[in-house]
Amino acid sequence: MEHFESVVKQAHGVTFREHAKWWLNHIQGRKRKPIATATLELWKGCLDNWIDPNIGDLPLSEVNNAALKGLVAKMSEGGLSPKTISDNYVPVVKMIVASAVDEQGEQIYPRKWNHEFIDLPVVEQGKQNTPCFSAEVMTGLARWKRPRERMIFILCGAAGLRIGEVLGIEIDKHISPDFLTLSIKQKVRHGKVEQRLKTAYGFRQVDLHPAIAELLQQFVDDRKAGFVFRTRKGNPVSPTNIIRRHLHKALEELQYVNPYTGTHKAGNHAFRRFRNTYLRNYTDCPEGLYKYWMGHAGKDMSDLYDKI
Length: 308
Prior knowledge:
Blueprint lengths: L1 H7 L7 H14 L7 H19 L9 H13 L4 H17 L16 H4 L16 H7 L5 H13 L3 H5 L3 H4 L6 E4 L2 E3 L2 E3 L9 E4 L2 H11 L18 H15 L15 H14 L4 H8 L6 H5 L3
Helix pairs in contact: 2-3, 3-4, 3-5, 4-5, 8-11, 8-13, 13-14
């Protein structure tokens, strides 16, 4: 009834901005496909930075291909990348318009979006910033002078873990007694623990090489509980601090050059690309197993039937 009152009855007069505000509240409380905090913040940023300032005052009924064409043109002129426009901003507009439904659940403003008319920029995968660390770079990071960060780099590369997953590991909850297996059940974001991972496939167990397990055990030493990587107060470490203050500094000292940007900077996914590339091309690891270790979603029926 609340939805009917706030959206359907006012459908012909409600602005895009007003409905977007309702939509943000709605997606936070829905039971079907609840969104992660990071996704919510991303979508809020899209609305605040470009969408609302440009089309927020339009009636929701007038947000169509022509309106989206104008928005895309302004974002392109503003320097946003094709991937950012296509993957972040445009989907938000589409979802908000589609969320206006009547009491039968039918869309009030059904749209057949025309990407050719909108002039939606094409994302060229070969030009995306997707660096992958080489074996030489990984060797350098594995010898880094700071023990805590060195161990983080080793686990990211040797296990293919996301930085937030590494920082969420607790000694008594997520490490097997022999240190050979890690249970990935939570992550750290902005210094806080989240029980939600990037996807459902992120919940997994990752086996470590005995040499890596030995390094991890030596790092943990005689501690029996708490975060493996912690602040002086015992709190989880912030992923952002690790990337910006330590990884980028280490890469600069190693004279690493990102082939896509020409800078020394690279993100955590460079570790995951290294691990994935190694498992696929230089080992006899079964495909189903390395996908499981990496936390990758299945793409076909063969993956669905693989219960490794």
